[in-house]
């Protein structure tokens, strides 16, 4: 264990200047600093010992972050100037990054560690480092749909839907197993969110006075360099270890570093006639997903639930109907299909509006029909009870509607025993 003690002492000595600064500025007392050193020493010996687990590193990180929050709170109370406080914050972040680096080096197969590492980098806005971490994680776990979804959603949030689609499509090629359906559903969700943002800009919502809506859409799609995963670039800041990033097979020729404008003049002119704005891309994602091994009634229902949640998209009804028609064709009497058919009249209808009672009447009529023809009455009843419970949780729900739903719920529970 002598080797472990020497290594632990090495890491503890690196934090000594910061601890002296804490003592000089009276942020922590001598007894508190002694306690901090003891606790940090225990963690260092734990993660350096043989047989350490990923949870040990996560516990160490959680402790370091709680310590940094306490330090920041005391700095504010003691009115310590920003430069000292900022320096301590950067030191704490650097130490946390170091712990994560040691963690993923020792346990490269732990997905929770990589996710926690990426979440921390995103939280502290270390965008270029986030990109390098994600590239390394995807190289080690190319069949992990959650990591591809993180990369795609990050690119979409940064305004580069072209890059986001590239990540999702590349991930879909790798993730062909049972969990691959999650990535396809997330891809569809990302496209629906993009449609919602574009339509909001077209209608002028969230656009400053005097700004053209199409120009606002361009701004929505503006690429923020350094905030997305670039598999095709030679990263000048490729990391402390000098790791390489994955090449992009879609890049042609030289000069790939200079990204083209997301919207050129021709695209702007065709904006309003674009099939993409009428829901063509989400429907295409669903149609291609139908041909994948993972596709089944449950996967189709997940697509339905995702599309049903975007009432701010004008093409929602067309997309939802497309999914429902496919489900009726492939799984006509499955509980998932019956559940979607029952809930269909209420999609896009606010519970607090006058249109809700009429739509609910239609849904309850479909519920009686669905219970008669479904292959599994118990499964369908379970789905419907969960759906009714969700509506009953709405605050300010009309008393008459509440009575009807509670009676329906009791009937379902009694019918299935």
TrEMBL record:
<feature type="compositionally biased region" description="Acidic residues">
    <location>
        <begin position="234"/>
        <end position="243"/>
    </location>
</feature>
<dbReference type="InterPro" id="IPR003107">
    <property type="entry name" value="HAT"/>
</dbReference>
<dbReference type="GO" id="GO:0034388">
    <property type="term" value="C:Pwp2p-containing subcomplex of 90S preribosome"/>
</dbReference>
<dbReference type="GO" id="GO:0000462">
    <property type="term" value="P:maturation of SSU-rRNA from tricistronic rRNA transcript (SSU-rRNA, 5.8S rRNA, LSU-rRNA)"/>
</dbReference>
<protein>
    <recommendedName>
        <fullName>U3 small nucleolar RNA-associated protein 6 N-terminal domain-containing protein</fullName>
    </recommendedName>
</protein>
<dbReference type="Pfam" id="PF08640">
    <property type="entry name" value="U3_assoc_6"/>
</dbReference>
<feature type="domain" description="U3 small nucleolar RNA-associated protein 6 N-terminal">
    <location>
        <begin position="12"/>
        <end position="88"/>
    </location>
</feature>
<feature type="region of interest" description="Disordered">
    <location>
        <begin position="234"/>
        <end position="269"/>
    </location>
</feature>
<dbReference type="GO" id="GO:0032040">
    <property type="term" value="C:small-subunit processome"/>
</dbReference>
<comment type="similarity">
    <text>Belongs to the UTP6 family.</text>
</comment>
<keyword id="KW-0677">Repeat</keyword>
<dbReference type="InterPro" id="IPR013949">
    <property type="entry name" value="Utp6"/>
</dbReference>
<dbReference type="InterPro" id="IPR055347">
    <property type="entry name" value="UTP6_N"/>
</dbReference>
<dbReference type="InterPro" id="IPR011990">
    <property type="entry name" value="TPR-like_helical_dom_sf"/>
</dbReference>
<dbReference type="GO" id="GO:0030515">
    <property type="term" value="F:snoRNA binding"/>
</dbReference>
<keyword id="KW-0698">rRNA processing</keyword>
<keyword id="KW-0539">Nucleus</keyword>
């Amino acid at each position: 264990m002598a080797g472990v003690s020497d290594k632990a002492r090495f890491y503890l000595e690196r934090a000594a200047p910061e601890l002296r600064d804490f003592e000089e500025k009276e942020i922590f007392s001598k007894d508190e600093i002694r306690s901090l050193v003891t606790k940090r020493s225990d963690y260092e010996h734990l993660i350096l010992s043989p047989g350490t687990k990923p949870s040990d590193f996560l516990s160490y990180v959680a402790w370091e972050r709680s310590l940094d929050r306490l330090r920041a709170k005391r700095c504010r109370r003691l009115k310590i100037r920003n430069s000292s406080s900022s320096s301590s914050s950067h030191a704490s972040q650097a130490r946390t990054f170091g712990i994560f680096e040691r963690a993923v080096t020792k346990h490269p197969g732990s997905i929770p560690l990589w996710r926690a590492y990426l979440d921390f980098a995103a939280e502290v806005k270390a965008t270029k480092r986030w990109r390098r971490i994600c590239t390394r994680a995807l190289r080690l776990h190319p069949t992990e749909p959650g990591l591809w979804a993180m990369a795609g959603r990050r690119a979409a949030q940064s305004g580069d839907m072209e890059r986001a689609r590239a990540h999702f499509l590349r991930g879909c090629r790798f993730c062909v197993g049972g969990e691959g359906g999650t990535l396809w559903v997330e891809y569809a969700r990302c496209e629906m969110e993009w449609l919602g943002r574009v339509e909001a800009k077209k209608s002028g919502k969230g656009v400053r006075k005097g700004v053209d809506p199409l120009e606002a859409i361009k701004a929505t799609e503006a690429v923020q360099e350094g905030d997305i995963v670039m598999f095709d670039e030679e990263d000048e800041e490729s990391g402390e270890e000098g790791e390489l990033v994955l090449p992009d097979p879609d890049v042609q020729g030289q000069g790939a570093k200079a990204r083209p404008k997301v919207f050129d003049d021709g695209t702007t002119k065709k904006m309003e006639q674009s099939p993409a704005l009428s829901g063509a891309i989400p429907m295409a994602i669903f149609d291609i997903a139908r041909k994948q091994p993972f596709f089944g009634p449950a996967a189709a229902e997940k697509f339905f639930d995702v599309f049903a949640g975007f009432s701010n998209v004008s093409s929602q009804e067309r997309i939802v109907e497309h999914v429902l028609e496919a489900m009726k064709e492939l799984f006509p009497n499955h509980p998932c299909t019956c559940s979607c058919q029952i809930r269909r009249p209420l999609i896009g209808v606010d519970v607090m509006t006058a249109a809700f009672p009429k739509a609910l009447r239609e849904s309850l009529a479909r519920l009686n029909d669905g219970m008669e023809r479904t292959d599994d009455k118990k499964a369908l009843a379970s789905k419907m009870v969960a759906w009714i419970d969700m509506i009953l949780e709405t605050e300010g729900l009309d008393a008459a509607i509440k009575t009807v739903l509670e009676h329906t719920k009791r009937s379902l529970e009694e019918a299935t025993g």
